[in-house]
Give the backbone structure.
Amino acid sequence: MSTTLSAAAAAPGEPGPCVRGTGRTAGPGPALLTMGVEEEFLLVDRLSRAPAARAPQVIAAISAALGPLVQREFFTAQVEVCTRPTSDSAQLRAELAWLRDTVSRAAAAEGCMPVASGTPVIPPGEPLEVTPDPRYLRMADRYAPALGDLRQVVCGCHVHVGVPDRARALDLANRMRPWLPVLQALAANSPFDRGRDSGYASWRSVEHARWPEVGPAPVLDEARYEHTVEALMRTGRLMDRRMVYWYARPSEHVPTLEIRVADVNADLDVVVLLAALVRGLAAALAADAEAGAPSPLAGSRALRTAHHLAALNGLEGEGLDLGTGRRVPAWDLVGALVERAAPGLEAAGDLPMAATVLGRLRVQGGGAARQRAAHRRLGSLRGVVDTLAATTATTTATTATTATTAK
C-alpha cells in the first residue's frame, strides 16, 4: 500500500528513489537484474509491547534523512521502509540495516520499538487508528469487513525485481507462480496473533487474504491484464489499480515485478536471502522465456492448496509439490527452488550466501519456529516481542559501517 514515488535517480549521497525505479545494471559480466525490498514494521510500546500509534512522530523525525525511503502505512502503528534498487546483495543488506537502525533510534525516542512480525503478538489496547490519508480512509470505509474490529494489522515484506516492460513482467509472473508458495513458507513469521497461537506459521497470510484480490495472480498477457484490472475497478471490486494485491504483480508506475507473499522477518539475513532467491529465480526464468520455453502450468486449486500449506506449516511440515501433486517435506521444495534459481544465484555471486543462511535455518528453524521456541524458553508473549524487537534492531559492526557509506 505504499505511495507512488518517482523513479528519477538521486544525486550522490542524497536519498534515492524507492525500489520501484529498478532495471538492469551492467558490469564486466552479463547484466544483472536489480532488486529492492519494502519492509513493514509494527511499532510497539516499550512497556506494554502492544501496538503503538506513533508512526507519525517516528516518520517526522527521520523524513529529512530518509526522504522517500520511509513511508506511512495503513495504520498509524506501522512504518514502511524501502530500499533503492541495487544488483548487489551486500549493498542491499547494508541499506536495510541502515534503515532499520534509523527507524529504531527514532522509535526509541518515542517510547516504542519496531518489530518485524507479520502479525501483532500482543493485542492492541484499543482499536487501531487508520492513517489520515484520503486514500486509506476511503479504503477503510469501503472495505470495512476486511478490517474486522480495527485491532488486526499485518506486516509484509515485498521484493521487487527490475524488468524491461510490463509484458515481460507479466510473463515472468506467470512463470513464477508455482514457486511462490515455497518463498511464502521460507518467510513464514507470524504464528502468534493478538495474544494467541494461531496454529499457523503465517497467520498474516490468512488475515491479509480478507482483502479483495489477495492471492495467486491469474495467468495474463498485457491485453488481458488491462481488461481484468479495468473490470475489477468498474465493478467496484477494487477501488483503484494500486489495490491489485496479487502475489506477483507488475508495478503500475515503473518497470518492476513485485512479489508479495512474504511476512516481514526480524532476521535481516532471511530478508536478503528472499530477495536473492526472487532475483535468482527471475533471472533463470527470464532465460527460459528468451529461449522460447513455455510457462509451467499450475491449476488454481492446487496452487491455493500449496499456499495454504505454506501458511500453515512454513518450513516445519509438508508442502505441495505442484509438479507431482504430492505432499512432500517443505525443505524438499526449498531444495528444488534453490536448484531452479541456481544459475541466477551463481551469476550474481549469491550461492554461498544462500547456502549459509539456509543451513542456519535448517538448524534454528524459520521465523515462526523461532518465535514459538522463544515462547517456550521465556514463558511469555512479552518475551517473544522482546526477542523480535532485539533481532529486528540487530546489525553487526561491519554492516553498520557499510550502511553509513550506503547513505
Notes: The chain has a mean pLDDT of 90. The longest strand covers residues 35-45. Residues 48 and 214 are 32 Å apart (CA to CA). The radius of gyration is 20 Å.
